[in-house]
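[job 4471] stage=fold_predict status=RUNNING
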Amino acid sequence: MIGQIIYGETCKGTLNYVFGKGGMRILGYGNTFSQNISPKFFESVLHFQGQRNATKNRYAHISLNLPHGEHLDDATFHKISKEYMDKMGYGKQPYVVVRHIDTKHEHVHILTTQSSENSSKLTALTIFLPMVFPQLYQKMAPSYKQQYESVALGSYLKHAERMHAPFEKSAKDYIAFFNAKGFYFEKGTDGLQVKSIYTEKKASFTLSKRTSLYLNSIPNLSQTLKEQQTVINGLVKYGRNNLKNLWAGHLMERGIYDKVAFMLTEEKVYPNLHSEMAQQHMDNGLRKSINEAFKRQSSIQQNRLLRKAVYAVSSFLGNRGKAQEEVFNGFKDEFTDYSKYKRRGLSL
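[job 4471] inference complete, writing C-alpha coordinates
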Protein backbone atom coordinates (compact mmCIF):
# COMPACT_ATOMS: atom_id res chain seq x y z
CA MET A 1 0.00 0.00 0.00
CA ILE A 2 1.26 3.46 -0.94
CA GLY A 3 0.45 6.50 1.17
CA GLN A 4 0.70 10.09 0.00
CA ILE A 5 0.19 13.25 2.07
CA ILE A 6 -0.42 16.77 0.76
CA TYR A 7 -0.64 19.72 3.15
CA GLY A 8 -2.58 22.91 2.53
CA GLU A 9 -3.73 26.16 4.10
CA THR A 10 -7.36 25.69 3.02
CA CYS A 11 -9.62 22.67 2.72
CA LYS A 12 -12.60 23.86 0.67
CA GLY A 13 -11.35 22.71 -2.74
CA THR A 14 -10.17 19.33 -1.46
CA LEU A 15 -13.47 18.70 0.32
CA ASN A 16 -15.40 19.54 -2.86
CA TYR A 17 -13.26 17.06 -4.82
CA VAL A 18 -13.38 14.24 -2.30
CA PHE A 19 -17.11 14.49 -1.53
CA GLY A 20 -18.11 15.46 -5.08
CA LYS A 21 -16.62 12.51 -6.96
CA GLY A 22 -19.26 10.26 -8.49
CA GLY A 23 -19.68 6.91 -6.75
CA MET A 24 -17.74 7.97 -3.66
CA ARG A 25 -18.48 6.15 -0.41
CA ILE A 26 -17.88 7.53 3.08
CA LEU A 27 -16.35 4.68 5.08
CA GLY A 28 -16.40 6.53 8.39
CA TYR A 29 -15.42 9.51 10.52
CA GLY A 30 -12.84 9.77 13.25
CA ASN A 31 -13.06 11.86 16.44
CA THR A 32 -16.30 13.60 15.50
CA PHE A 33 -18.24 12.02 18.42
CA SER A 34 -20.77 10.62 15.95
CA GLN A 35 -20.83 8.72 12.67
CA ASN A 36 -24.23 10.13 11.82
CA ILE A 37 -23.19 13.51 10.42
CA SER A 38 -23.36 15.02 6.94
CA PRO A 39 -20.35 15.91 4.73
CA LYS A 40 -21.37 19.55 5.00
CA PHE A 41 -21.30 19.41 8.76
CA PHE A 42 -17.91 17.67 8.77
CA GLU A 43 -16.64 20.49 6.57
CA SER A 44 -17.63 22.98 9.29
CA VAL A 45 -15.92 20.92 12.00
CA LEU A 46 -12.73 20.51 9.96
CA HIS A 47 -12.61 24.19 9.07
CA PHE A 48 -13.15 25.22 12.71
CA GLN A 49 -10.46 22.84 13.96
CA GLY A 50 -7.97 23.87 11.28
CA GLN A 51 -8.33 27.58 11.97
CA ARG A 52 -7.13 26.96 15.53
CA ASN A 53 -3.77 25.85 14.10
CA ALA A 54 -1.42 28.78 13.57
CA THR A 55 0.65 27.07 10.85
CA LYS A 56 0.05 27.52 7.12
CA ASN A 57 -0.21 23.76 6.57
CA ARG A 58 -3.42 23.49 8.55
CA TYR A 59 -4.96 20.59 6.65
CA ALA A 60 -3.74 17.19 5.48
CA HIS A 61 -5.05 15.31 2.42
CA ILE A 62 -3.95 11.68 2.60
CA SER A 63 -4.48 9.02 -0.06
CA LEU A 64 -3.92 5.31 0.56
CA ASN A 65 -3.52 3.34 -2.67
CA LEU A 66 -3.58 -0.41 -3.23
CA PRO A 67 -1.41 -2.00 -5.94
CA HIS A 68 -3.19 -2.84 -9.21
CA GLY A 69 -5.24 -5.99 -8.91
CA GLU A 70 -5.56 -6.00 -5.11
CA HIS A 71 -8.95 -5.64 -3.45
CA LEU A 72 -10.20 -4.80 0.04
CA ASP A 73 -13.77 -4.57 1.25
CA ASP A 74 -14.96 -1.31 2.82
CA ALA A 75 -14.73 -2.51 6.42
CA THR A 76 -11.13 -3.74 6.03
CA PHE A 77 -10.05 -0.61 4.16
CA HIS A 78 -11.57 1.54 6.90
CA LYS A 79 -9.81 -0.47 9.63
CA ILE A 80 -6.46 -0.10 7.86
CA SER A 81 -7.08 3.63 7.47
CA LYS A 82 -7.71 3.99 11.20
CA GLU A 83 -4.50 2.12 12.01
CA TYR A 84 -2.59 4.33 9.59
CA MET A 85 -3.94 7.50 11.21
CA ASP A 86 -2.95 6.29 14.67
CA LYS A 87 0.59 5.36 13.62
CA MET A 88 1.09 8.66 11.76
CA GLY A 89 0.02 10.72 14.79
CA TYR A 90 -3.36 11.83 13.41
CA GLY A 91 -5.43 9.45 15.51
CA LYS A 92 -6.77 12.16 17.83
CA GLN A 93 -7.66 14.61 15.07
CA PRO A 94 -11.08 14.79 13.36
CA TYR A 95 -10.94 13.01 10.01
CA VAL A 96 -13.04 11.33 7.33
CA VAL A 97 -12.25 8.28 5.17
CA VAL A 98 -13.78 8.36 1.67
CA ARG A 99 -13.44 5.64 -0.97
CA HIS A 100 -13.20 6.51 -4.68
CA ILE A 101 -13.70 4.11 -7.58
CA ASP A 102 -12.61 6.36 -10.46
CA THR A 103 -9.25 4.63 -11.11
CA LYS A 104 -8.09 1.08 -11.78
CA HIS A 105 -6.33 0.84 -8.43
CA GLU A 106 -8.48 0.94 -5.30
CA HIS A 107 -7.82 3.88 -2.98
CA VAL A 108 -9.25 6.04 -0.18
CA HIS A 109 -8.92 9.72 0.60
CA ILE A 110 -8.53 10.90 4.21
CA LEU A 111 -9.01 14.53 5.18
CA THR A 112 -7.87 15.84 8.54
CA THR A 113 -6.15 18.73 10.26
CA GLN A 114 -2.42 18.98 10.66
CA SER A 115 -1.17 17.48 13.91
CA SER A 116 1.80 19.03 15.65
CA GLU A 117 3.05 19.64 19.15
CA ASN A 118 2.72 23.37 18.53
CA SER A 119 -0.91 23.24 17.47
CA SER A 120 -3.56 24.83 19.66
CA LYS A 121 -4.92 22.87 22.60
CA LEU A 122 -8.52 22.81 23.73
CA THR A 123 -9.55 26.19 25.09
CA ALA A 124 -12.31 27.59 27.27
CA LEU A 125 -14.47 27.88 24.14
CA THR A 126 -14.78 24.09 24.05
CA ILE A 127 -17.62 24.17 26.56
CA PHE A 128 -19.71 26.33 24.22
CA LEU A 129 -19.96 23.66 21.49
CA PRO A 130 -23.64 22.86 22.26
CA MET A 131 -24.45 26.54 21.69
CA VAL A 132 -22.37 26.90 18.50
CA PHE A 133 -23.07 23.47 16.95
CA PRO A 134 -26.32 22.25 18.53
CA GLN A 135 -26.94 19.64 15.82
CA LEU A 136 -23.56 17.98 16.33
CA TYR A 137 -24.07 17.98 20.08
CA GLN A 138 -27.49 16.34 19.75
CA LYS A 139 -26.09 13.60 17.51
CA MET A 140 -23.31 12.65 19.92
CA ALA A 141 -23.52 9.20 21.42
CA PRO A 142 -24.10 9.47 25.20
CA SER A 143 -20.68 8.01 26.05
CA TYR A 144 -18.89 10.44 23.72
CA LYS A 145 -20.97 13.32 25.03
CA GLN A 146 -19.97 12.61 28.61
CA GLN A 147 -16.32 12.30 27.56
CA TYR A 148 -16.46 15.59 25.66
CA GLU A 149 -18.16 17.44 28.51
CA SER A 150 -15.54 16.22 30.99
CA VAL A 151 -12.75 17.53 28.76
CA ALA A 152 -14.65 20.81 28.25
CA LEU A 153 -15.02 21.26 32.02
CA GLY A 154 -11.28 20.85 32.47
CA SER A 155 -10.48 23.33 29.71
CA TYR A 156 -12.84 25.96 31.08
CA LEU A 157 -11.62 25.40 34.64
CA LYS A 158 -8.04 26.32 33.72
CA HIS A 159 -9.19 29.47 31.91
CA ALA A 160 -11.49 30.55 34.74
CA GLU A 161 -8.76 30.07 37.36
CA ARG A 162 -6.60 32.62 35.52
CA MET A 163 -9.49 35.08 35.24
CA HIS A 164 -10.37 34.74 38.94
CA ALA A 165 -6.82 35.05 40.26
CA PRO A 166 -6.78 38.90 40.63
CA PHE A 167 -9.95 38.75 42.76
CA GLU A 168 -9.35 35.58 44.75
CA LYS A 169 -8.33 36.04 48.38
CA SER A 170 -9.14 32.62 49.84
CA ALA A 171 -10.17 29.07 49.01
CA LYS A 172 -13.77 30.04 49.72
CA ASP A 173 -13.50 32.72 47.03
CA TYR A 174 -12.35 30.03 44.61
CA ILE A 175 -15.59 28.14 45.15
CA ALA A 176 -17.80 31.25 45.24
CA PHE A 177 -16.49 32.59 41.92
CA PHE A 178 -17.16 29.27 40.18
CA ASN A 179 -20.60 28.96 41.81
CA ALA A 180 -21.61 32.34 40.38
CA LYS A 181 -20.80 30.99 36.92
CA GLY A 182 -22.84 27.83 37.39
CA PHE A 183 -20.07 25.42 38.43
CA TYR A 184 -19.99 23.45 41.66
CA PHE A 185 -17.72 20.99 43.44
CA GLU A 186 -18.32 17.53 44.85
CA LYS A 187 -16.27 14.86 46.56
CA GLY A 188 -15.58 11.95 44.21
CA THR A 189 -13.76 8.64 44.43
CA ASP A 190 -10.55 10.22 43.05
CA GLY A 191 -10.86 13.47 44.98
CA LEU A 192 -12.71 16.72 44.50
CA GLN A 193 -14.35 17.19 41.12
CA VAL A 194 -16.10 20.02 39.31
CA LYS A 195 -19.50 19.81 37.61
CA SER A 196 -21.79 22.39 36.01
CA ILE A 197 -25.42 23.27 35.33
CA TYR A 198 -24.64 23.27 31.59
CA THR A 199 -23.50 19.64 31.33
CA GLU A 200 -24.90 16.25 32.19
CA LYS A 201 -24.79 15.29 35.87
CA LYS A 202 -22.46 12.38 35.12
CA ALA A 203 -19.92 14.66 33.44
CA SER A 204 -17.19 15.83 35.78
CA PHE A 205 -13.53 16.79 35.88
CA THR A 206 -11.25 15.77 38.74
CA LEU A 207 -9.27 18.64 40.23
CA SER A 208 -5.51 18.52 40.48
CA LYS A 209 -3.99 17.42 43.78
CA ARG A 210 -2.73 20.93 44.37
CA THR A 211 -6.20 22.47 43.94
CA SER A 212 -7.79 19.74 46.06
CA LEU A 213 -5.35 20.43 48.90
CA TYR A 214 -6.11 24.14 48.57
CA LEU A 215 -9.86 23.61 48.92
CA ASN A 216 -9.42 21.06 51.71
CA SER A 217 -7.81 23.85 53.73
CA ILE A 218 -11.31 25.28 54.22
CA PRO A 219 -12.58 24.57 57.77
CA ASN A 220 -15.68 22.34 57.56
CA LEU A 221 -15.41 21.91 53.78
CA SER A 222 -18.47 19.63 53.70
CA GLN A 223 -20.67 22.46 54.93
CA THR A 224 -19.21 24.86 52.37
CA LEU A 225 -19.97 22.34 49.60
CA LYS A 226 -23.58 22.05 50.80
CA GLU A 227 -23.99 25.82 50.77
CA GLN A 228 -23.20 25.87 47.05
CA GLN A 229 -26.69 24.65 46.25
CA THR A 230 -28.28 27.94 47.26
CA VAL A 231 -26.48 29.75 44.45
CA ILE A 232 -26.75 26.89 41.94
CA ASN A 233 -30.47 26.36 42.55
CA GLY A 234 -31.05 30.10 42.22
CA LEU A 235 -29.43 30.17 38.77
CA VAL A 236 -31.56 27.23 37.63
CA LYS A 237 -34.72 28.70 39.14
CA TYR A 238 -34.35 31.94 37.19
CA GLY A 239 -33.48 30.21 33.93
CA ARG A 240 -29.81 31.11 33.94
CA ASN A 241 -28.60 27.56 33.32
CA ASN A 242 -28.23 28.38 29.62
CA LEU A 243 -24.82 28.57 27.98
CA LYS A 244 -25.73 32.03 26.72
CA ASN A 245 -25.54 33.29 30.30
CA LEU A 246 -22.06 31.83 30.68
CA TRP A 247 -21.13 33.25 27.25
CA ALA A 248 -22.22 36.74 28.31
CA GLY A 249 -19.96 36.47 31.36
CA HIS A 250 -17.12 35.19 29.18
CA LEU A 251 -17.47 38.18 26.84
CA MET A 252 -17.53 40.50 29.83
CA GLU A 253 -14.26 39.05 31.11
CA ARG A 254 -12.73 39.63 27.68
CA GLY A 255 -13.87 43.25 27.70
CA ILE A 256 -16.28 42.92 24.76
CA TYR A 257 -18.76 45.25 26.41
CA ASP A 258 -20.79 46.27 23.35
CA LYS A 259 -21.83 42.67 22.75
CA VAL A 260 -22.63 42.16 26.44
CA ALA A 261 -24.74 45.33 26.44
CA PHE A 262 -26.67 44.08 23.40
CA MET A 263 -27.32 40.72 25.08
CA LEU A 264 -28.53 42.50 28.22
CA THR A 265 -30.82 45.06 26.58
CA GLU A 266 -32.06 43.22 23.50
CA GLU A 267 -31.89 39.53 24.34
CA LYS A 268 -32.43 39.85 28.11
CA VAL A 269 -29.49 37.50 28.71
CA TYR A 270 -27.84 38.14 32.07
CA PRO A 271 -24.20 37.14 32.54
CA ASN A 272 -23.34 34.50 35.11
CA LEU A 273 -20.52 36.25 36.90
CA HIS A 274 -19.71 37.07 40.52
CA SER A 275 -20.92 40.51 41.62
CA GLU A 276 -17.41 41.65 42.58
CA MET A 277 -16.13 40.96 39.07
CA ALA A 278 -19.23 42.39 37.42
CA GLN A 279 -18.82 45.64 39.38
CA GLN A 280 -15.26 46.09 38.14
CA HIS A 281 -16.38 45.61 34.54
CA MET A 282 -19.19 48.09 35.07
CA ASP A 283 -16.63 50.66 36.20
CA ASN A 284 -14.26 49.79 33.36
CA GLY A 285 -16.71 50.61 30.57
CA LEU A 286 -19.65 48.22 30.67
CA ARG A 287 -21.92 50.81 32.28
CA LYS A 288 -21.21 53.22 29.41
CA SER A 289 -21.94 50.54 26.82
CA ILE A 290 -25.24 49.64 28.52
CA ASN A 291 -26.33 53.31 28.63
CA GLU A 292 -25.56 53.67 24.92
CA ALA A 293 -27.49 50.48 24.18
CA PHE A 294 -30.50 51.77 26.13
CA LYS A 295 -30.37 55.04 24.18
CA ARG A 296 -30.38 53.16 20.89
CA GLN A 297 -33.20 50.96 22.11
CA SER A 298 -35.17 54.00 23.29
CA SER A 299 -34.72 55.67 19.92
CA ILE A 300 -36.00 52.58 18.13
CA GLN A 301 -38.98 52.32 20.47
CA GLN A 302 -39.82 56.01 19.94
CA ASN A 303 -39.76 55.49 16.19
CA ARG A 304 -42.11 52.52 16.56
CA LEU A 305 -44.48 54.53 18.72
CA LEU A 306 -44.37 57.38 16.22
CA ARG A 307 -45.17 54.98 13.41
CA LYS A 308 -48.13 53.58 15.36
CA ALA A 309 -49.34 57.12 16.03
CA VAL A 310 -49.29 57.94 12.32
CA TYR A 311 -51.32 54.83 11.54
CA ALA A 312 -53.75 55.71 14.33
CA VAL A 313 -54.24 59.24 12.99
CA SER A 314 -54.65 57.88 9.49
CA SER A 315 -57.26 55.42 10.71
CA PHE A 316 -59.08 58.14 12.63
CA LEU A 317 -59.25 60.23 9.46
CA GLY A 318 -60.91 57.35 7.66
CA ASN A 319 -57.95 56.20 5.51
CA ARG A 320 -57.72 52.49 4.77
CA GLY A 321 -55.44 50.20 2.82
CA LYS A 322 -53.35 51.97 0.21
CA ALA A 323 -54.47 55.44 1.33
CA GLN A 324 -53.33 54.67 4.87
CA GLU A 325 -49.96 53.49 3.59
CA GLU A 326 -49.56 56.66 1.52
CA VAL A 327 -50.20 58.84 4.56
CA PHE A 328 -47.47 57.01 6.47
CA ASN A 329 -45.03 57.06 3.55
CA GLY A 330 -45.59 60.77 3.10
CA PHE A 331 -44.94 61.38 6.76
CA LYS A 332 -41.85 59.14 6.63
CA ASP A 333 -40.44 60.82 3.53
CA GLU A 334 -40.78 64.22 5.12
CA PHE A 335 -38.28 63.19 7.78
CA THR A 336 -36.04 60.70 5.95
CA ASP A 337 -35.59 62.19 2.47
CA TYR A 338 -32.31 63.92 3.18
CA SER A 339 -31.83 64.90 -0.49
CA LYS A 340 -34.03 67.91 0.29
CA TYR A 341 -31.40 69.24 2.63
CA LYS A 342 -28.28 68.81 0.53
CA ARG A 343 -25.90 71.76 0.79
CA ARG A 344 -27.96 73.47 3.47
CA GLY A 345 -28.18 72.91 7.15
CA LEU A 346 -31.09 71.48 9.04
CA SER A 347 -32.86 73.83 11.37
CA LEU A 348 -35.26 73.06 14.16
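[job 4471] summary: Strands lie at 2-8, 25-30, 59-65, 95-100, 107-113, 183-188, 191-196, 205-206.
[job 4471] exit 0
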